[in-house]
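Structure (tokenized):
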């Protein structure tokens, strides 16, 4: 799911004449980073304080990379037209929801209850 959503975002961004190749790569990278955090949280269920701390630490490091200029340059991340960040938010919300629901869906399809840690 994460790979598919990332690829779709990259393909759509690259097809947009207002988006440079570097910006399309940055859009894909940010999409994959956010969905990777969702995968980390889902795989960490049931959540404990230290698992939440791990996810928060990862999120903070991603934010630092996006905000601190030398880190952003090192990872070759660039800006993109503002509307694209709205698209990234929408895509990650949809992809994240699918990733979060996947264990329950698999459990129903295979008639095997999956402990989602949500009880």
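Design, position by position:
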């Amino acid at each position: 799911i994460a790979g598919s959503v990332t690829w779709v975002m990259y393909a759509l961004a690259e097809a947009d004449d207002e988006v440079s190749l570097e910006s399309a790569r940055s859009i894909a990278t940010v999409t994959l980073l956010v969905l990777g955090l969702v995968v980390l949280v889902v795989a960490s269920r049931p959540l404990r304080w230290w698992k939440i701390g791990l996810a928060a630490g990862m999120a903070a490091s991603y934010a630092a990379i996006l905000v601190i200029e030398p880190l952003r340059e090192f990872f070759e991340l660039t800006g993109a037209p503002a509307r694209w960040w709205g698209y990234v938010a929408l895509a990650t919300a949809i992809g994240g929801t699918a990733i979060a629901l996947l264990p329950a869906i698999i459990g129903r399809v295979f008639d095997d209850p999956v402990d989602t840690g949500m009880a």
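Reviewer-requested clarification: The helical segments are 2-15, 21-43, 49-67, 69-74, 82-109. Residues 82-109 form the longest helix (28 residues).
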